[in-house]
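Researcher: Next entry in the queue.
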Amino acid sequence: MKTIHDFNFENKKALIRVDFNVPLNEKFEVTDDTRIQAAKPTIIKILEDGGSAVLMSHLGRPKGVQNEFSLKHIIDKVSYVLGVQVKYVANCVGKDAEEAVAAINPGEVLLLENLRFYEEETSGDIAFAEQLSKLGDIYVNDAFGTAHRAHASTTIVAQFFADNKCFGNLLAKEIESIDKVLKSGEKPVTAILGGSKVSSKITIIENILDKIDHLIIGGGMTYTFIKAQGGQIGDSICEDDKQELALEILRKAKEKGVQVHLPVDVLGADAFSNDANTDVMDVNMIPNGWQGLDVGPVTIKKFHEVILQSKTILWNGPLGVFEMENFAKGTIALGKSIVEATEKGAFSLVGGGDSVAAVKQFGFGDKVSYVSTGGGAMLESLEGKILPGIAAIG
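Model: Structure for this entry, 394 residues:
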């Protein structure tokens, strides 16, 4: 795996695909700079070598050129995070972009305009990728969040750089973290999968069963498993057409010696509301008119014991409706258990939108081993897919 540490960027212009798809408020101010912070080590390494950085990114899903999606809005924030006044050009290809790149000196940073102002970016157009390739000497992909897309800037452009291409720090860390779980993780390996649907996690489960020792299942998909085994789930969320699939997963897990841990008690509610009446109940005996919205205290203790035995932990998906304060206890307790295991030497990887949101919301981000920025890209990696943006670097 070639990374930026295999190159000296002195007097070189690095064309870096970053993921600066950051949230903006109505005043076009960046409200969360996590992704910019994540790209900083790669950019700083290149500048310290005596190179210059040409940054390309998308923002949102514009239809053609739209002011609200212009990357000019983030120049101040990127400059602040990097500690370098970032230059900007109002295009990402063509004469203006090429002249702006020619004008930058070692130690300088240039931000190109939104790649998705051109539909050729998402269609993976070769001619567009070739135009982008004229803007740097070395291509660096540091955008894990888009590595599962065969877009011009994430995949196609790499073919114009022969051996002068590599992964940035962030993307290298993402690859290493997923490999630690799927290939080289110290045993016991535990995967915690939450979320509402079995159907969205089935490929992940099938791919990881050979690599794990424990599978903790939580969130809404609990109830598909419970109902499939004859339990009463009241009004809890359930994919009725996936019950046979749930039983098949349990059969396969047993065959492979994987211990599956389902909730044994839940915090039930008589409405999908933070103000609903609640009661702790057996997961197999939820009365009609009630639904499980979080795990109960016995389950929290049971899951805690499994996690503390683990040496490698993957967490993807919450245990309950953590967005509502009254149903966040299970997810918070799970986070604390993972933090404790990490402190005792376990490797912990958190990924997937809701888990990452929970980790941030409850302040666990810097207490686990790694928080993936990838979302869809991480899920596809866990499903065993080769991501085009990674394959392109080789």
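Model: The CA atoms of residues 342 and 368 lie 6 Å apart.
Researcher: Noted, moving on.
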